[in-house]
Design goal:
Strand content: 5-15%
Radius of gyration: 16 Å
Distance between the termini: 10 Å
Bound molecules: adenosine-5'-diphosphate
Shape: globular
Largest sheet: 5 strands, parallel
Order of helices and strands: EHEHHHEHEHHEH
Strand order of the largest sheet: 2-3-1-4-5
Structural class: alpha/beta
Length: 191
C-alpha cells in the first residue's frame, strides 16, 4: 500500500497516520516529524529547516524532496508507506510521482481529512499547550493555514482527477475517524 494522508494543519493527520500505517504494516512517514527530529538533533538539515518551520513557511522543495527520497529508499518502506505532510506543493507531487514510478509501483490512494475551521484552531491551540511546538502560536498557525489553502489544497483536485481521492470526515472521536478511514481503504487494500 502506498498512501498519502492530507488535510489542513490540525486535521489529525499525525494521529491517524500511525493507526492506519500500523494496520497495513507500513511505516508512517511524517515530514514534519523528520524535520522536528533533525532540529532537536541539530543536524544540518534541522538547521536549514528550522527557520522556515518557526515561521510557518514551507521548507524549500529541494530540501524536502531529497529527504523524502532517502526515507522512501529505506528497506522498511519497500512494501509500502503512508506519507503524512508530503506532498504539499505541485512540485512535490511531480517529484513523488517520479520516485514511485522508479520503483515500478503506483500510488494506491490519497486520503484527505476534512475538519471545520473553528475546530482546527481549537485543536492547534490545545496542542500548543500539550506539546509546546514552537509553530503553534496564533500568528504562525494563521500563516500555515494560509499556505495550506494556497499551495496544498489545490493538490486535492489533482488527485481527485486521477481517481485516487478518498474524502473522510475528520470530525468526532479519534477512533471513529480511524474506523472511517480503514473502512474506506478496505476495497483499495483488496484490489
Ligand atoms: P502541520 O500539518 O500541523 O502544519 P507538520 O508537522 O506536518 O505540521 O509540519 C510542520 C512544518 O514542517 C511545516 O509547517 C513546514 O514548515 C514543514 N514541512 C513539513 N512537511 C513539509 C513539506 N512537504 N514541504 C515543505 N515543508 C514541510
Amino acid at each position: 500500500m502506498r498512501l498519502i494522508l492530507m488535510g489542513p494543519p490540525g486535521a489529525g493527520k499525525g494521529t491517524q497516520a500511525k493507526f492506519v500505517a500500523d494496520r497495513f504494516g507500513i511505516p508512517a512517514i511524517s515530514t514534519g516529524d523528520i524535520f522536528r527530529a533533525n532540529v532537536s538533533e541539530g543536524t544540518d538539515l534541522g538547521i536549514q529547516a528550522q527557520r522556515y518551520m518557526d515561521q510557518g513557511e514551507y521548507v524549500p522543495d529541494s530540501v524536502t524532496n531529497l529527504m523524502v527520497r532517502r526515507r522512501i529508499d529505506q528497506p522498511d518502506a519497500e512494501p509500502g508507506f503512508l506519507l503524512d505532510g508530503y506532498p504539499r506543493t505541485l512540485a512535490q507531487v511531480e517529484e513523488l510521482d517520479g520516485m514511485i514510478a522508479f520503483t515500478g509501483h503506483r500510488l494506491d490512494a490519497v486520503v484527505v481529512l476534512t475538519v471545520d475551521a473553528e475546530e482546527i484552531v481549537g485543536r492547534l491551540l490545545q496542542r500548543s499547550e500539550v506539546e509546546g511546538r514552537t509553530d503553534d502560536t496564533a500568528d504562525v498557525i494563521r500563516r500555515r493555514q494560509e499556505l495550506y489553502a494556497e499551495e496544498t489544497a489545490p493538490l486535492v483536485e489533482v488527485y481527485r482527477d486521477r481517481g485516487l481521492l478518498i474524502e473522510i470526515d475528520g470530525m468526532g472521536e479519534v477512533d471513529l475517524v480511524t474506523e472511517r478511514i480503514l473502512t474506506a481503504l478496505d476495497p483499495v487494500h483488496q484490489s
